[in-house]
Amino acid sequence: MTASPPRLRFAPSPTGFLHVGGARTALFNWLLARRTGGTFLLRVEDTDKSRSTDESTRAIFEGLQWLGLDWDETVVFQGANLERHRADAATLLTSGKAYRCFCTPDELTQRRTAAEAAGGAFSYDRRCDRLDTAEIDHRVAAGTPFVLRFRVPNGETAWHDLVHERISFPNKDIDDFVILRSDATPIYNHAVVSDDIAMGITIVMRGDDHISNTPKQILLYEALGAPLPQFAHLPMIHGTDGKKLSKRHGATAVGDYQHLGILAPAMVNFLALMGWSPGGDFEEVMTIDRLVHAFKGDGLLRKASVFDPKKLEWMNGQHLAKMPIADVEALVAPLFEKAGLATVAQLSARRDWFHHLLEQLRVRSRLVDEIVTQAAPYFADAVTYDPDAVAKQWKDPGAVLALMTGVRESLESLESHASWDPLLLEEMMRTLAESKGVGAGKLLQPLRIALVGVSASPGIFDVMLILGRDGTIARVAAAERRLREMMASA
RNA sequence: GGCCCCAUCGUCUAUCGGUUAGGACGACACCCUUUCAAGGUGUAGAGACGGGUUCGAUUCCCGUUGGGGCUACCA
Asked: CA(A280)–C1'(B55) in Å?
């Protein structure tokens, strides 16, 4: 670690949504910055005008904001630094670290395909570096287009990676790469280094697909006389088939998961455990604060990990069950309104009731939306009877009718709403079942269908509490009518 | 093809040379029980292969195999 607080950055290119891999990279940078009291910066790498869109930039910002990954200072747009990129390239040219190359793209591809056809690997042969000064001046004066290439020195380039220990490349394997295009715009590696130097970045933490860029960037730092940052190359995240995560694997954008009903803290928790481990035995379900505390920059893994949506869902269920109920309300009330169940205002008007309902449903849900789905029966005017449930639990309409009538009469005998108590109701129903000569289950299961229409629900006495005395009695009565219809049509 | 990175249950991982190789997700079974969840308990399930080094390798070294990344006037 550096002595002074580190400066880290996340540098996405705005060519699409915020990918889970990118989100994980951003998260690790953010965690380390927050843990160490460092700075977390955001830089949008929009130098490729043809692929960058404002829409993508917005989507990335939204994704980061949703996850709660706030950045310090103002966002840097790489495209705005064009003049510095050119100036740095010019410095390299005048100091002899770079040279003009007049080879055209067509010539280059031709030579490349020729080399490949011959079974060899193409590498730039430095022919333009051998041009004499007069020739160069002549071509420049004639307006011949040229790019700037970096002259890779002999030797070896190595660094101590924070996750991989030592990594080294023989310089002979590094081409004299282009740093400035013929239209005088910078190539990635050059822009990155120029910006990272200008932004004072001290730790470059990114995906390990950048490992092979690193020696080029180190060479650039050295040529520019700038101090080297530390590098940390995080493993990739793969799909279930072991291949790099792509659209083929379904949802890959963090926004997709948001819309699927995943909670941001669960997503963060899950992502944090991909490619990092606090070590030893530890509780996997962690709050963001806890993650910040535990994330010390060590425990970074080297192996690519497979994104497991099942575990994400489990993680989400854990967070859903543990978060403050008021937070669940805030999150879910708008969804209830959208689903046409009730307005946010209506829900907050009977907050205690709503909270009780949410307590009952959240433990049975893994995704936020499942709460809404499960809540539908408690808002409908009439119960929708699920055919399968009816077929199973109301097999004998006559017998069920007798039971339901008994239930209704018992409930009606409870005059006071104050006596509408789960324990009391349970005692009453069990007594009733006994007097009817059936087991409790034989009474309660058909009753569940009467009350909510489906065979899965919270405990039946909690359901009765949620429905209230009148609501419960009305539904039992409705069930009795339905059962008579079934008998009549049978 | 060249260069680089990686390699423990199906998946995420623990292990700082000596362990019955531990935990989590998922799967299965059981318990709880009015259903569904949640929760509890348990079962199955891993060191890719071959050489070294060592009294002793999952652990250190080399090779093989496999997977991945890069190899642009993309980022």
From this structure: 29
User: In which band, very low, low, confident or very high, does the pLDDT at A430 lie, cut at 50, 70 and 90?
Assistant: very high
Domains A1-74+235-321 and A387-489 share a fold: no
Task: State percent of chain A over pLDDT 70.
Answer: 99
Q: Which nucleotide is closest, CA of A165 to its C1'? A: B5
> Would you say the C-beta of A445 is within 7 Å of strand B?
yes
How far is Cα of residue A355 from the mean position of the Cα atoms in its chain? 28
Q: Which of A172, A247, A296, A395 is catalytic?
A: A247
Active site residue A247: yes
Helices (H), A224-274: 254-260, 264-272
Domain boundaries, chain A: 1-74+235-321, 324-378, 387-489
Predicted confidence band of residue A391 (pLDDT cuts 50, 70, 90) = very high
As to burial, measured by CB atoms within 10 angstroms (0-12 exposed, 13-18 middle, 19+ buried), residue A168 is exposed
ipTM over 0.90: yes
Quote the distance between the C-alpha of residue A41 and its chain's center. Answer: 19
Nucleotide nearest to A308 (CA to C1'): B11
The model's pLDDT over A151-171, given as tens digits with 9 standing for 90+, comes to 999 999 999 999 999 999 999
Residues 6+ apart with CB under 8 A from A161: A167, A231, A232, A233
Dmax (CA) of chain A: 112
A212 CB less than 7 Å from any atom of strand B? yes
Q: What is the CATH number of domain A1-74+235-321?
A: 3.40.50.620
Please give the CATH number for the structural domain made up of A387-489: 1.10.10.350
CA of A250 to C1' of B19 (A): 40
